[in-house]
Amino acid sequence: MSLYQVTTPVGLPSGELADFSHWLNAASMSAAQACVEAYHTSLAGSSDFLELFTTTTTFGESKVSEINQVTGIVVTSATAGTAFAGTATAEPLPPQVAVVVTLLTNILSRSTRGRYYLPAFTVDTVDSGGRIELAAQDACVTAIAAAHQAEVDASCTVTVYSRTLRSTENVTTISVGNVFDTMRTRRDKLVEVRQNVDLDETP
Question: How many secondary structure helices (H) and strands (E) does the chain include?
Answer without folding.
Answer: 4, 11
